[in-house]
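Researcher: I'd like a structural prediction for the single chain below. Treat it as a standalone chain; there are no partners to consider.
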Amino acid sequence: MAYVARKHDWADLDLDFIKHPTTGDVVRKTGAEAIKRSVRNLIMTNFYDRPFRSYIGGNVRKMLFELVSPLTATFLKNAINEVITNYEPRVAIDNIVVNVSPDRNGFDVTIAYIILNSNQPVTINLFLERLR
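Model: Treating it as a single chain, here is the predicted structure.
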C-alpha cells in the first residue's frame, strides 16, 4: 500500500467581500493569493489593532507619518522583515526593497518571498503612503 502526501492548500476569505456569481457566498482566496493577502494584512496592521492580540503588527502605518527619507525606508524594511518573520510561518523572505519616492510622498516596497511547502516564489509590490 502506497501513501501519498496530501497537498495542503491555504484558503482565506477575500476581504473585498466580492460575492460568488452562482452561490452568492463570499469568494475565497486560495493558495499563493491567500498567503499574499495575509502578508499584506500583517504589514498594514499596527500594534493594538487586533483585540486580544495587541502584540501583532509592525507599526508600518505609524512610520509613514515620518519624513520621507532613506533612514525611514531602512526602518520600514526592518519592521516589514520582523513582522513577516515573526507571524507568517508559511513563507521565507528572499528580499525586501524599500525605495523612497519623495515626489509622491511615500515608499515603493517590493517583497520577494518563497512559500515553504511549494518552493513557489512570490513578489508583492506596494506603494505605502499616509492617508491623512
